[in-house]
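Convert to structure. Protein one:
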Amino acid sequence: MRAMHGRPFPFLRRLPALLTCLLLWTALPALAVQRPAVSSGLPGYEHTAWRVGQGAPGDIWDITQDRDGLLWLATGSGLYRFDGRRFERQAAPVGSQFPSTNMVTLAHAADGALWIGYFQAGISRFARGQLHNYGRDQGVPVGVVPRFSQDRQGQLWAAINGGLRRFDGQRWQPLPAAAGLPERRVQWVLHDSRGRFWVLADLKIWTRAARQTTFEDTGIAVSQMATLAESPQGEVWLADRVRGTSPLANAQGLLPDSEREARRLPELVAARLQFTADGALWATMSPHGGVARITFDGSRAVRMERFDSPHGLTATSAVPIIVDREGNLWVGTNLGLNRFRARSVHTLAVGPSDPYRSLVRASDGHVYGYGEDLKPYDLRRTLLDGSATQLQAAARQAPTPIWQFDWVNLARTVAGRTTRIPLPAPFTGQPLHALLFPDDEQAWVCTGERGVLHYQHDQWQHERRLPEQACSSLALDAHGQLLLGYADGRLRRMGATRIETFDAGHGLSVGPITALLDHQDLLLVAGEAGLAVRLGNGRFVQVNTDMAGVMEGITGMVADAKGYLWLNGSRGLVRLGSDQLRRALRSGQPVTPRLFDAVDGMPGIALQSGPIATAALADDGLLWLATNQGLAWLDTTRSHINTMAPSVRIGEVLYGSAHEPLRDGLRLPAGTSQLQIDYVALSLARPERNRYRYRLSGVDDGWQDAGSSTRAYYTNLAPGNYRFEVEAANEDGIWSTAPASRSFRIAPTFMQTVWFKLLCAAAILALLVMAVRIRSGQLAVLFRARLQERHGERERIARDLHDTLLQGSQGLILRLHAISQSPQTPEPVRGQLESAMQLAERNLAEGRERVNALREGPFAGRDLASALADVHAEYAGHGTNPLRLTVEGATPSLQADAAEEVFLIGREAIRNALRHANASAIEVELSYGTRCFLLHVRDDGVGIADENAGNGHWGLQGMRERAQRLGAELQLWTRAGLGTEVALAVPARRLYHRRPSRWRWPWSKANHD
């Protein structure tokens, strides 16, 4: 007893140990959860923000993307759409309205319809310009609609605080009681890739397998406002606002409790979850805390990156997060919209920190970086997450020598030991202009003003075959020949036996040469003024692009295994396809390069003053770049190409002061001649880099290159039907698969109609007719005046002849008659006087006839047939030389002057037949045809042996002249002893009066002269 009394009870001594074990046992679940390392910012992503003050809406509760690529935003102030450039508030169709502006949920169904869930106002369906609202009368219970989900059969389901609902095409139907699901507090629904249906209801997780009708209670409790998401591996994850985020199930079903707990992320208290294609988990933190990105190594979370308002997020309170079809992540906050885009170029954060950072590629394909302290960094892919110390330690264990320089010396690191190699005299201490390290044992150096040195087998050699001129760039071609670029723009290629020189005479004109690359059949020469390329053995051709300045300041060029050319220049990193470049060289067309700049992660621009190339490609596919802001890398094993062909949305058309959406079949008002058409490509990755081309049928002969402009302008448009087409290319030059198009019509004004043109033509024709008639009237008046003047002159001549010549002749005849009757006149003389007096009387009779013709005209308006008959009667007498007169056709009204000419021709023909032909019979035929008038005068006389015989008075020549004035045709047929026929053909229009019109102008006269 004494012994026990002196010592405490044994269990008292073990009590602290027992309590420690108990505490450890209770804490084991908490210690089993995952707590990945947390870092600030998202260095691998470019962030772009659109804030409320910049046109973006606030209180963004959900985001969805339609099949064309347009983003739709559900906000507290209504429905918005975003095309990458502009936010537009979507108004309700005419004649309808949204039940509320407080929208919380969006979903695009398979048929393209947009479903909208409200805070306390039911559900709406917006499709094809029509809005259908569903409330309590259509089966929607009162409450928030937090989520929609569509199953494999296309059935749409809605999670509503008042219960789960299914849309049957007309109404929202509740589940039967036999389904086993509570009808309250339904806060999330999800159909996973295997067809299993997950529902968060009554603060529990319920599930239903595909083709089953009843739900199973998993027994897992959740907090209010919990959500679900599925990973690319098919795992369903739960975001719980109390316990954090954890996996819930995989393809085999629910995960065991121990696994769920072991993989739980208690610090990730998320509002929404979103997995990306690379397996990373993105989350918006609840109730605030911005955005988090978790990366995994298998199932273990290894890193959490946080991005919040101090980093540029529009607000710390974020809810919706989605991935669009181009891989961009979109996050909505209560103060705007955010986009996260994976960077292609990544900065080495632990590399050399001095201003000049150089790269060198070792003979084993590894790339090393170093600064002025010449401490190399091993830049292998597997070491990128290591510290600076780890990268330097790996470089010290490099299996091959590492070449370096310190501006006046070369250096070589072998097995971690660096040895400086000074230049030989007289070049010692002179600056290095260009360096090339072909292998582990040799180096080429351009130094000073005229030194080209070769280091090999630990000895320096001065290259004497080259001109005394220091080069600015060095490279090897595919055959191991040395390429040397110079500051004067020349290029030399040194082979074993000869040296070739290329200059402006060979098409090489890029200024001081800064980089060289020989790739297959392409020889690229970069200079301060651009890039020139030689294809095969041809001339150098300057490379033109549609992006100004991208080919300037290139100091590093490499070609990767896929045939892409990478150029590190003063605008950033440029990628060119070698096949694309060959096509451009052959066709003379500009190339469209892909520029990687600050938005793509480039920390700066290429170093411009170093003697070594600023681009090096490692054998693990990493392209390393030396920039003025540090070393950076790009993984060439990835495509870095946005293969999604953009669709194009044609927006509004502006005409005058009005504007409206340009729809197919739109009719624009009359008088429209100027248009502005808006359009935009729905490529959201780099909308500022999208390029466009458009054409308007009937105006443009071909596609019009619009660059990055999103508007087309047209002026001086005529009325008619038009079709506007537009295509777009994304930042990687991928063009739309088909152009977007709209047809429209510009209505004509009255003066632009066909009727107006016909009316104008009729008016012009009427004016011409009126002018002709007026002129004809003036000419007729002038003609009558001249005719009257002519008649007056003829009457004066007739009077003068009558009063002088005829009277004198008559007096002379009387005097001669008196002499002949005088007894003193001898008989022979009397006979002669009688003969002379007979001749004088005949001449006097003919003179009186001519005087009468001058006074009133021989025709004097008589009928042509009777006038010709009178001529025969006058000259033939009665009973001798009978006349046969024939008239065919009705006698029309004749033009007086033309009829007189016809009469005179006929009279001359009859007189000739009576006087000279000794004819026993004469036949005259008049034919009044519709097209012409015919006159035939025939006799059976002696004929005419000589055409010039019988030309009494006018004669045959006078007849021909009269016929020519009429525009008529005169023909003569004669043969000696067989008689003569004279035929005259006169066009009807020259002889007949025109038929009067059935209608007359008011100013026209009814009669015709």
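Protein two, convert as well:
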Amino acid sequence: MSQPNPPAPHGASPDTATVTEARLTVPRPWALPTGDVLAHLATGSGGLDAAAAAERLRVAGRNELPEPPRKPAVVRFLAHFNDTLIYILLAAAVIKALMGDWLDFWVIMAVAIINAVIGFIQEGRAEKALAGIRGMLSADATARRDGRWVTVPAAELVPGDVVRLMPGDKVPADLRLTQAFRLRIDEAALTGESVPSSKSTDPVATDAGVGDRGSMAFSGTIVSAGQGQGVVTATGVATEIGRIQALSDEAGSLATPLTRQLDSFGRVLTVVILGMAAVMLMIGRFLHGMPFDELISAAIGFAVAAIPEGLPALVTITLAIGVQQMARHNAITRKLPAVEALGSVTTVCSDKTGTLTKNEMTVRRIVTPVAEYEVSGLGYAPDGGIHPVGTEDGSPGTGDLAAILSVATLCNDAHIVQADDGTWSLVGEPTEGALKVAAMKGGVGTAGGRRVAVIPFDSAHKLMATLNEAARTGGGEGEVSRAILVKGAPDRLLERSLTQRGAHGSEPLDLSHWEEVLDHLSSQGLRVLAAARKPVRATTDEFALDDLIDLEFLGLWGIVDPPRPEAIEAIADCHAAGISVKMITGDHAGTALAIAHEMGLAGPDAAVLTGAELEALSQEQLREVVRDVDVYARTSPEHKIRIVRALQSHGEVVAMTGDGVNDAPALTRADVGIAMGIKGTEATKEAAEFVLADDNFATIRSAIAEGRRIYDNLRKSIVFLLPTNGAQSLVILIAVVFGLALPVTSVQVLWVNMVTAVTLSLALAYEPAERGILRRPPRASGGPIIDRGELGFVVVVSLLIGGATMGVFYGVAATGVDIEFARTEAVLMLAFGQLAYLFNCRFLTRSSLTLDVLRGNRAVWWSAIALIVLQVIYTYAPFMNLLFESRPLPAASWILPIAVSIAIFLAVEGLKAVRARSSRHTASLKGGS
């Protein structure tokens, strides 16, 4: 038991000390003796009285994380109109309203409003993330007030309160411990440590990291064993959890590569559209003397034709379809644009505990004086076996193994339980759970014996001992034997041992041999525990620590938090896809490096950068080395954010995975945050863009492949959609420049845009993945959404479809029919030209003159049918004739648009063949040079 320091003198009680904010703030309390902390806070072992607590509550504020001010819903909704393309649409709608053209006005406004509604529904992640962290605070606490222990709301704790901790309690505030009786606290959610931290009252170094502050208990962590008392040193935003919330606020959320590209594309397109509209106005006015109102209508028609107003809906729906596909792979998406961002990831920064590993401690090696054994199976399920190293199967059944396994199960307070669904779980501490499972694998149980007495684990002595009784082997009925069974730190047990259990009984302890074995196991990243025993008289009923001498040493266990087997394969696939994987953990450097080697994450000469070493580096120095280091150990939340920022400064698209609250700020800062769904904290899930439903790192591999597929399909959809706008705007531009009749009106332009966007464009979202999608490097995140070659492709196809539309319109109009009839034929030509072009876009890098173009994606055929049905309604429904000024066409009038569309398909295939030949020629020249 750690002895508390003397309490502060009563002269420093709150009655005689002035309560100020400075008085209630203790700098680095973990490095100060408890007496100094109590004196600084003007409190004592008796705690505070009610009046003093009330005054301090007024000064320090409630022990809560404040909710940030939230923008009104109206403001958040209107923010979705903040887009350059939408500005042009709204301006066009306003002009149409001023001109009294209300049909065009409402059609344009409907497009803009639908886009805003979709965006409004998708937002809200940051508020939920902070709410998740606030929910980690405990509801009540046991504090000493007015000289007695009382239950008070945790929100009313103040600096200077003395708080009691019991097993299972959630720590209500940051405490400087004043008493610690075998106290162990699970800080995994805060530090990433998979083993509960042993606590004492002894001061630690001033520069100790969060995971090494053994004299502190932090708000939101869980007491796993023992008892303790502490004085509150920080509440609310001043706690470690409060600091993490501030980091989440300050980290900021970056735009994804897709949103950056779409913003850039929109700005360029806006300038081009406005410039061309201005030129068109001047030509129409000064060259042809067209009426001003007619010119304004034509300019709006041009703008409406040129703006891909279906693009926001296309992007949103394509990403939403990707969300459904990812959900089938156990990746739950919280924010739509992140679907595409995942496909452009160049670096995955992963937490170790529970992400790359199972977070289920497992005995991997057992070394006795007779032999070394390998233990198969992972986690808490008792599947697997124990066999000597170098053999395939079978347990030797000798006494050395049975003896050490008896200690594993009898000197143990953990229980392994099986649920109704067949899964196994641990009740107790992870290390003891690992020993219990190893005993189960070796067929050793607790039946036939009983525990007589126990010395619980104490961090000061680093051992646990039990006095156990069992039936005497070979004795008569009722005869029993008793023995002391001990497990603990190897150095503590070796110094208390006199002999070891050899093949033929007890033999002298070979200390040098065990030191070599200990070094060997530790170098493999294993956590090593030792076992020993001591026979006693059958009448012995109690024992003390002083009795633990002259022990018989039984051997060592090598324990590890094992890597997920599927994660090893996933890391290899990530490397093949050009994606680097970095481990960022709060665990010790040796353990982290051993796991990294085992998983193929780091090479044999890889170095580890610890939190203390990272702290000594400037951001520029970190930037220079960040891409060369694959393993970071003993890190804090601030370190994780610095690492992510350093990687992003190199243009890396960073995905950060994690499960503890300590990961939330870095997940917020990363381009893509990925949380564990089963073992992840609520704060982490709410901060992430993705949640892995199965906590499986391998799911990230599937999600990255899906993200790449989605981006490919999005590019196909955009390359497909743009020629619609290009052809329509070209038709209007040429008509005005040459003083001709408009082949289509502005409202007809909107019709074609909308029906092709919601039918044909969506078909490409269901395209299967391209061949070798995970064998190509990540795409560059800074480039345009379509490259120059594709832009030229779009221009040529626009000329083809636009030229065909004008040819059909003026050709039909020349036969003497009215202009509405000819325009109906022109709209049909635009729609069917797009349908033919859809089949070209299914394969942008190879020919569509193959039977594959007719199969593999049933959505293509359903969308084609939907387009034809909509065009039939547009052509023949009386209300559509009234709204859009269309006219019914005789059946023979459908032949010309269909024939010209087939010609467009063949022409585009010829263009693709020329592009493919040019690309191969360029590649061969580069290869030759």
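The first strand starts at residue 140 and ends at 145. The chain has a mean pLDDT of 82.
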